[in-house]
Amino acid sequence: MSYQVFENINRGYGASTSLPLNSKPSTPKRHVHANALGKDEVILSGEKSKDKQGQKDFSMKEGGLVAALGATIGLVVAWVKKRNIPKIKQLAEHIEFTKAETIKDAIAFGKKHLGIEKYSNFSDNDLNVINWINEGLVSACNKMRGKLKMPKLIHIGDELSDISNPLAAENKHGILLLNKKFFNDIDAAVNIAINNASDLLFSKNNKIPLYLNRQKALKLYERISQFKQGKLSTLGQKVMLLDDMLKLADEVGFMQTHPLEKIKAIIDMPQWSSIQKRLRDDIPEVDVLEKLSVDDQYMCLMKIMCQMKKNGVDVGANGVESSPFRCIYHELGHLQDIETRVMSKDGFKNPSEYPKELVDWLSNEEYMKTASKVSQYSCSGPAEFIAETYAQLISSHKLPDDVMALYKKMNGPIVPV
Ligand SMILES: [Zn+2]
Fold first, then answer.
1. Strand blocks (E) in 3-102
2. How far is the CA of 291 from the centre of ligand 1 (A)?
């Protein structure tokens, strides 16, 4: 059982570090995360202003990057450095994606329609990956009506040999780095994620766990079954399944570590007053709840969720079905972001290294509450909130008003509706 996924959130959110209840599900480990999370920015960020925020300076980072990624990527970085930082392009307002039959054709497509200057290290085995990345970029371009910054270079390689880094992007210099190992082993990665998530997704008596939204859980079971039967054929479908499972795990994990936040969100719902009448004797007022242990709060949350389900309101974790291209959109979000921000607390060894901007972000309860509506990862740092929100907007997901207000306040890149 691993709770490492939520360790950082606990730290940043000032919440309890109490151990989980026996009845709580285990959660999948982050090492199969499909979100291009974790080390993407740690390895590749090259923002000069980071040093004032207490992170490593540009040259150290870049030196580290070259050393870590070897000679090939060293040449890649040299190639990019000779060029300017990507600027906003005006591509065609609508691009029709066509699946290429060869790597050569896929590269030609990207150069012609997407303004990608170079694809590096793609071999014939990577045809589905290059088609996937091109299709994802096309769909983002179309949503942005052709006006956006694009990566200059897309490199696929073994440099990020850890499966936890499936996709990585350099923010300001326009390298999009893909983890060849992950994509070549996508079935293995999905299988690991299914195994890790099995306690979370399936209860022993074959009932849908209370903390899951019934409809969403059924849909997810169906997709897992399709995957196991070999019916999920495209790379995008598999990436999306993996992504959705991990998002769901994040959401359930957040309920476990921050049950009071979930209870407060339910109390804000219009249906609450009728539910409350039925629960009056069982659930104390918020000021009393606040004094309870996290485990007791979680028990109250489960009682509330049970009663809500009986009343036809399902507030279980619903792990929004994302998009086959969500991780591409996320990286594009970093690229579009005109502000220089601290990325994620994951980039720091311990909280004493956190720059003030990050401390302020993590300790702002209002921000955490809002960001958690996008994803748990978006809580981990201001730049991740922007990238995660951007990814949702590109997917045309409607986001709550407070999320949009914070995104606007922080000057997040505008996405046409
Ligand atoms: Zn990111």
1. 89-90
2. 35
